[in-house]
Every structure is written in structure tokens, then in C-alpha cells.
Amino acid sequence: MNQGAKIISESIIGGDFRTVFVGGKAYTVYPPTIYKLAGAISNLSDVQEAENLKNVLLSLGESEAYSKALSWLITGDESLSEELAKGTYEENVNALDEAFSMIDSKVFLKAVSLVRNVSLLAAKPRL
Asked: 50 to each of 17, 41, 42, how far by Cα in Å?
């Protein structure tokens, strides 16, 4: 079976998920919807460009943004962010990396760039 058929069949039967571990607990992450992705990216809009997705995520340093973004990808809101913040910095970054691996990294990087540009437009007054 080719890769495209495998992805589609897993999506139809609900087999396209990843299990991530943060703070000694397991969380199931499904491929992000536009809504979940937008919520997660809104917390990660300050990341810097780098050669790969893991380094992009690491560019924020230790931050609560990781647990908030991961909560968005798991539940679609920030309700798990306090619980996820109990995990280590590395656990949160690794879980985010795993969750974002379900989408093309170019799409993620482009979305982050767009959020940054929109925030700059909203923040700069016209003269």
C-alpha cells in the first residue's frame, strides 16, 4: 500500500494519532485541525527561524508557551496547560515536536510567519 493510501485509511479509521508523555502522564494527540493549530501557533508566534522544527521550538527557551501550545493540540484550548507545565521543558518540547510531525513542517513554519506578520500589522500604528 502506498503512503498516501495508508494516511487516508488511518485517518478514516481513527488510527492516525500519537501518544506523548509529559509529567509521567500519557496524552493522545490527533492530527491538528486548523482551529487547534491556530490556537497552538498563537502561543508560539515568538519563535525564531532555524534549520529544523525542533530548533524552531527550542528558540523560545524555557517558557510556559510550550504547555499552552501543547494543550491546544490535545484539547483545543488551554485547559491542560497547568497540568502540562508540571512536566519538564524537554518533555513539552518533545511532545510538541511529535504533534507537529503529523503535519508538514513547511506548513507550520509558514503559519508561524503569517501570525508574526499579522501581529506586526496590528501593533504598528499607521502614520
From this structure: 26, 16, 18
Model pTM? 0.68
Measure the CA–CA gap between 19 and 98, rounded to whole angstroms: 9
Give the strand pairing for 18-22 and 25-29: antiparallel
Helix (H) or strand (E) holding 27: strand 25-29
Which stretches of the chain drop beneath a pLDDT of 50? none
* 71-80 own/partner pairs: CB under 8 Å, 24+ apart: 72/36, 72/39, 72/40, 72/42, 72/43, 73/29, 73/32, 73/36, 73/37, 73/40, 73/99, 74/27, 74/28, 74/29, 74/99, 76/33, 76/35, 76/36, 76/39, 77/39, 78/39, 80/27
CA atoms 54, 58, 60, 62: torsion sign:
positive
